[in-house]
Amino acid sequence: MKTIYFLAIAVLAPSLFFALKAYGDGLASETLPPSLIGKTNVTLSIGSVPFLIDNNHAGTQLNLVLMDANTQQPIPDATLAISAFKGQNAVFGHIFKSDSGNFILNFYPQQSGNTTFDEKGGILSGMFGQDSGNYDVKGPVFNSGGLYRFKIEVITMGAYDNQVSKSYSAGISIPEYDNLTINDPGYGTHQIQIIAYYDQLHDVKYDEAKKFVNFTMPFDWSNQTIGQLTVVHQEIRIPRALGDFVTTKYDAYVNNIKIPNKLISIDDYSMDAYRIVHLILYKSNVQDLQSEQNNPPQVMNFALRPSADNAFPIIQFTRNAQYKIALSWDPPKITPGTTMQFNFKVMDPYTANKTISSIPYDFSVIEGENGAIYHQVGRTSGSDMGDNISVPFPSNYTGSVTIAFENLNDSSFASTEFPATVSLQTAATLSSTNQSTVPEFPLAAFVVLASMFVLMIYVTKTSVLRLR
Q1: How far is residue 347's CA from residue 327's CA, in Å, rounded to a whole number?
Q2: Could you list the residue range(s) of the whole structural domain that residue 367 is in?
């Protein structure tokens, strides 16, 4: 079954990537809009691998393709003059040639010295008048993550004696991550990973008393910088075992200004061991922050903490986007040795607050990775009030738990999971007095999930036909 999921994700990942594309700021690739060079409609793509780097990375590869936008084929005999900048500083500048129109630039960062450019094939390529487009670049280039901007001049295309003049501007982000170690008296030692997509981070620390994760990023608050901005993206990976940090709502601040909840996105599906929290600030959001500050420092000081104002019910879609489930429990804090009352409704994903008619389901509460605390096979009532399940929790367990719904309406694809925490300390879950609804998945994610469901059905049917 997992094979089908992996295949679906592999096929749909590119469409998801481009659906959420931010045109350079915050992502590792950019495809520029088509434009005419002579009579040819031309586009240029630029991307980097590996996607994540750290201070000990071996190198970064930059891939560029000059392409005919109509045929989607690379344009041969291309010459590009490429200049790269980080902030106000020039990183490198050089003229590159490629017979095929594909350029592969392999960067091997050094802390100092001159930058060298060596084309693979070397003397033999020159002797036969061939240009591979594959270069090794060594020097103080790409030795740190952050946002890089490129000025790219197309000098020739189609033939080396066919000189043209066209300029492109592009930007890509080379992410870099920092690890923050947290020693929690109730949940032990864990590492939170913080991924920076815009610039390098510093002053990464944890305020144990206030439960704040703090980090700082250089940022120029000038109108010129913000005018060129598309998005500032930070990613915080929180271990699921870190008790009180695995909540359904977070408070986030930039320079002590609280940012709107809609700019905070939670991903519980991408990684098994981590909850991922995305902070995504678009140009208009940064402009709002700028207007609330007088002479701000040339940084963004980020702070993230579990919210004390979480809200029931928690709403999530099943993995195939066939249903959405609204879940709450009472008391709002799960503690060892108590019997919890879980209430849930299975709803139509297309209609607001419409409960699905009676269907079978599997319900489980899973203790970390050790097995089920409770399991029940049942059938929903279809009532607008939802259904209730009583779950006794062991008196000797604290830590993360997973509340799982599976096999809804006998479909192995209709499943979802909710993280929660069993805690003796501060409230780890939600306030039942606040009945507002937490944000649901964005539309783009819903479309991708629905597409994934269709693909999985196709793969399953194809597999059955082959077996016959």
Answers
A1: 11
A2: 314-441
CB contact burial 185-199 (16+ within 10 A = b; e otherwise): eebeebebbbbbbbb
Looking at the fold, whether 319 and 181 belong to one and the same domain comes out as: no
Within 265-312, where are the H helices?
283-291
**Distance between CA atoms of residues 177 and 193, nearest Å:** 7
Residue type present at position 232: V
Any idea what the CATH number is for the domain that residue 145 is in? 2.60.40
Judge if 147 and 242 occupy the same domain: no
Q: How many domains does the chain have?
A: 3
Cβ proximity of 342 and 325 under 8 Å: no
| 3 state SS of 264 | strand
- Does one domain contain both 382 and 402? yes
Residue type present at position 169:
S
Quick: pLDDT tens for 55-94: 455 678 889 999 999 999 999 999 999 999 987 789 999 9
Torsion of CA 170, 63, 177, 253, to 10 degrees: 20
At 188-204, the pLDDT tens digits run: 888 999 988 888 889 99
Q: Are 310 and 429 in contact (CB under 8 A)?
A: yes
Please give the pLDDT value at position 104.
93
| Residue 50 pLDDT grade (very low, low, confident, very high; cuts 50, 70, 90) | low
Q: What is the pLDDT of residues 120-158, one digit of tens each?
A: 864 445 455 578 899 999 988 887 777 888 999 999 999
Residues 344-354 have a mean pLDDT of 89
Q: Are residues 296 and 385 in the same domain?
A: no
**Does residue 36 share a domain with residue 148?**
yes
Confirm if 261 and 316 have CB atoms less than 8 A apart. Answer: no
The two three-digit tokens of residue 36, written as one number: 């005419």
Hey, is 262 helix, strand or coil?
helix
Residue 237 confidence (pLDDT) above 80: yes
